[in-house]
Design a protein that fits this description.
The protein has 251 residues and is mostly helical. It has one domain (4-249). It is built from eleven helices and no strands. The mean pLDDT is 89. It is a multi-pass membrane protein. This is Transmembrane protein 56-B. Pfam families: TRAM_LAG1_CLN8.
Length: 251
């Protein structure tokens, strides 16, 4: 079980994320006639995307700073624990609960199940790390995948509000299909190499539940990320194929 103080901090972060979603979206999009004409569900999607973009930018900086400076988690990948690492996990957990609430509010029919499964798995892994004060290094390592999220969420906002030039959208797309695998797929082998190295420690002692979460949680997330990237590649091929056909028609 989570410590009461930690649970209250998670609740506070969730409340801040929900407030940001409504207040920031209202202020940023209020002058957009296109936003006002969008269906309620798409307005909700833009609010979710804006919140995700802000959180992921913050989380990326915080995770990189933590991984680079936190001696506790870097010296002991299993039991290393610090206030800085805790802040990373609390922020992520609070955001994920808020995002799940927003998705259920805007899309009660659960049309996008996979993103919910992703969030629930991450919540499970983070909660175990906080409750047992273990494996924080590995959880934060996985959270650095958020570096790619601003490129995806900004793309959604640009698309629905018709923002940016064709060149800026093209650059955004190239950045997304480049950074997404670098953050979410390329690190997979190194993650599990580090995990396997920990099993050789003489003082290796973790409960089976923590071991299960530590290994199988990331496996599920990795499979989801690989599937998402395959969809990105298919979409990219489709776009370029359509442009090639149009070019051929006019030549």
């Amino acid at each position: 079980m989570l410590d009461l103080n930690v649970a209250l901090q998670v609740g506070l972060v969730s409340s801040l994320c929900l407030a940001f979603s409504d207040i920031a979206a209202t202020r940023l999009f209020r002058n957009s006639s296109l936003y006002a004409s969008l269906p309620y569900s798409l307005q909700g999607t833009l609010k979710i995307s804006l919140t995700a973009c802000a959180y992921s930018a913050f989380a990326s900086i915080l995770c990189i700073y933590t991984m680079g400076t936190d001696e506790n988690i870097n010296k002991d990948h299993l039991r290393g624990y610090s206030r800085l690492a805790e802040v990373n996990l609390i922020a992520a957990l609070g955001y994920l609960f808020a995002d799940l609430y927003l998705m259920n509010r805007e899309d009660p029919k659960w049309n996008d199940v996979l993103i919910r499964v992703h969030h629930i798995v991450v919540i499970w892994v983070i909660t175990v790390a906080l409750a047992y004060e273990s494996c924080c290094y590995f959880v934060i390592y996985c959270l650095m995948a958020e570096i790619s999220t601003p490129f995806l969420t900004s793309r959604i906002i640009m698309k629905h509000l018709n923002l940016g030039s064709e060149l800026s959208r093209f650059v955004n797309g190239i950045m997304l299909i480049t950074i997404f695998p670098l953050c979410r797929i390329v690190p997979i082998p190194y993650y599990f190499w580090q995990v396997s190295a920990e099993f050789g420690r003489a003082d290796f002692r973790l409960s089976y539940f923590v071991i299960f979460s530590w290994i199988f949680g990331p496996v599920i997330l990795d499979l989801i990320n690989i599937w998402w990237y395959s969809l990105m590649i298919k979409a990219t091929i489709t776009v370029f194929s359509q442009k090639q056909k149009l070019n051929n028609q006019y030549t």
